[in-house]
Amino acid sequence: MGERSEQELLNDLAERYGIASDYYDYWGHRHPTSDQTKRAILAAMGVQASTADDVQRALAAYEEAPWRRSCDPVMVRPADGNVGLWSFRVPVAVGADQEVRILWEVTDESGHRRYSGEAGPGLVPAETRTVDGERRARFELPVPSGLTTGYYDLTARAIVLTRCAEGTLRLILVPPQCYVPPQFHQGDRIWGVALQLYALRSARNWGVGDLGDLAEFLTWAAKDLGAGVIGLNPLHALKNSRPYYISPYSPDSRLYLNVLYLDVERIPEYAESMAAHQLMEEGRFRSRLEAMRKSDEIDYDQVAGAKRTVLEALFKTFQERHCACQGNALQPLTERGRAFEQYVREEGELLEMFALFQALSEELRLTHPQAWVWQEWPEAYQHPQSPAVTAFRAGQQVRIRFHQYLQWVVGEQLRQVAGQARELGMPIGLYHDLALGSDRSGSDAWVFQDVFAPKADAGCPPDAFALEGQNWGLPPINPVRLRESGYRMFIELLRKNLKYGGALRLDHVMGLFRLFWIPRGMPASAGAYVRYPVEDLLGILALESVRHRAVIVGEDLGTVPDSVRARLASARVLSYRVFYFERWDDGNWKAPAAYPAQAMAVVATHDLPTLAGFWTGQDIEIRSKLGLYPDEGARRRALEQRQREKSGVLRALNSEGLLPSGLTEDPASAPEMTPELCRAIHVYLGRTPSWVVLASLEDVLGEVAQVNVPGTVDSYPNWSRKTALTLEDLREDPRPHQLAAMLREPRGLKK
């Protein structure tokens, strides 16, 4: 190693940790990864590489790490009857005259022993190495055959003379592909509606769309419109405080749900709580609710405060009537109390830690009001396993139970809506969205500090959409640490986001392959790609998809290599095709027949203008007012380009015979987006072979303002606008019914 140059050693170390040596941007230009970036990303992974000696030590540690444990932490293999060999290392000298015996057993997820056996004596080492002055030997053993897909623990004990070594390998056997409903294989295609749940208005909600609204919307969409799927924004847990903590794509936790979506009056304890009813009867409280309902934008802090006040009363009633919470023990008094106890037991440590974080956040917000994020808490509380946190946990069990209760009741309501979709015969039902990452100040980042890389941000390099690149402010997951943990967090993320619906969209699915890391304090242009163990992750994704009988959709927008889309397609991950972007190299729109069948087709996303906003150039004007164009010339060029794009859309519609009466390919003939033009564009998508087509509620209602303007926080009301119509008025509006009728026909569907 000493004969190699420092540059070669650094390149070697970066390669071993998955840091790409270069990347090609949107325009095809090559960007080599600088040494400064390599060292900074390595440091974010916990690897010191500042000097040549550091790099040499890090390389040696990397090489020796597998030899310091008896076996690898995890192995993911296809369950095809030929899963190969696994390694077991014995930390003793093995001579020719020494007999080695390895006793092993395989247990399944229930802890039941499935197989056991013995290898040796007479085993021959596959490799030997001296580590810390001790000779170690590695043996390769066949994985027991006959195991079906699932998670197993393969535990082994090696005996050499009077010494022994023990270790456990997490064995994950996976199917080759994700779940696909039989009707898709038979050629069926479906359509549905995508909505931002928080934006729903109704005469009864508390100023934010809730799960009661979702239940009513779903029933109407399935029965009256013939929709087979309802697409939702991420429902992840948030702090619900403007302006920084309301984005569903930067959540507190991706493992648990946002309790702001609770329909408080449908919680069973509401009917039993005199205190809650007294609160609701107060004139000031009723006036507060009415003001929140009438507002065109969501006041997250006010809504969260109002709901929390009543939820506190409901939890008190729950303790009195159903389940006493005393110390560490739960004392169920009714069947409902026993259901809560079972939920807490099944959720285990993950829920306990999430609830502990919420309780600790409340306490420290009172005692240290300037410490808004956990990184600013007193150092004694910054790690979940510290003595101070352990003491707090022991003394605040009732408060921890409160937050567990909130997750229980919101999960109950969401599960009921998902069940309702099944009862209505919807092919998919609820379609959820899994955000790429979690906020660095949230509970996930606090609980899984050993897996996240807090000294880096995820983002993307410069492209046509963002000339300076994008920094999403999300701490990336360290792929090395993720594997060492047996992929525990990834598995839990999938399980918790798959259990309430029939489909899951993975935001920025490229993150399974590689993710653009930006060292903190450096510009996005200085970032680099880090590779992830994609075959392992895709295998686990397929396993959980099949178990939950849920379709997987991969948001594969941006610069995505053909090889990535091909690999996702072979794993039966649906592609995500956006009408705005589906064009040929010459700028012309692709014909419906050019769309892939294994895909979900949509007009736009939450980060793009609505159809009405696109047509009027509202998004360009907003970006101009916010100073997101470098000069007036850039704004003018954007408007000129938009005219060409509108002409292209009209030309594409004309080629399919879909131009509404009175329109031509000249944009001047269509100065605004009409319901007829909106329907024509959706019918265009409806003619594609894509298995699923989604129409956004904003487009159905002709909304002009877009949901989110990337690059803004408090200068635009992101994630806050409500729909123009209430649910009650929406049911009477002709536009959804007209669009549904026209979409059902090209999809081959009946109401």
By CATH, the topology of one domain is: Immunoglobulin-like
Unreliable stretches (pLDDT < 50, length at least 5) are none
Oligomer: single chain
Number of strands: 26
What helical percentage do the residues reach? 25-40%
Mean pLDDT: 93
Largest sheet, in brief, is:
8 strands, parallel, barrel
Distance from N terminus to C terminus (CA atoms, Å) equals: 70 Å
The proportion of strand residues reads: 15-25%
Structural class of the secondary structure composition? alpha/beta
CATH architecture of one domain: Sandwich
Radius of gyration: 28 Å
Total helical elements: 24
Order of strands across the widest beta sheet?
11-12-17-20-23-24-25-26
CATH top level of one domain is: Mainly Beta
Q: Please state the overall shape, judged from the principal axes of the Cα atoms.
A: globular
Defining traits:
751 residues; 26 strands; eight-stranded parallel barrel; 19% strand; Immunoglobulin-like; alpha/beta
In short:
The chain is 38% helix and 19% strand.
Structure, described:
By secondary structure, this protein is an alpha/beta fold. Among the domains are: 6-66, no CATH class; 80-174, Immunoglobulin-like, CATH 2.60.40. The protein is globular.
Break the fold down into its secondary structure elements and pairings:
Elements: H1 6-16, E1 22-24, E2 30-32, H2 35-44, H3 52-64, E3 74-78, E4 85-90, E5 100-107, E6 113-119, E7 127-131, E8 134-142, E9 150-160, E10 163-174, H4 182-185, E11 190-195, H5 211-225, E12 229-232, E13 236-237, E14 253-257, H6 268-272, H7 274-281, H8 283-294, H9 300-321, E15 323-326, E16 329-332, H10 335-367, H11 387-395, H12 397-423, E17 429-434, H13 443-447, E18 456-460, E19 470-474, H14 479-484, H15 488-498, E20 503-506, E21 514-519, E22 528-531, H16 534-548, E23 551-554, H17 562-570, E24 574-578, E25 599-602, H18 611-616, H19 618-625, H20 632-655, H21 675-686, E26 692-696, H22 697-700, H23 727-730, H24 734-744
Parallel strand pairs: 3-10, 11-12, 11-26, 12-17, 17-20, 20-23, 23-24, 24-25, 25-26
Antiparallel strand pairs: 1-2, 4-8, 5-6, 5-9, 7-8, 9-10, 13-14, 15-16, 18-19, 18-21, 21-22
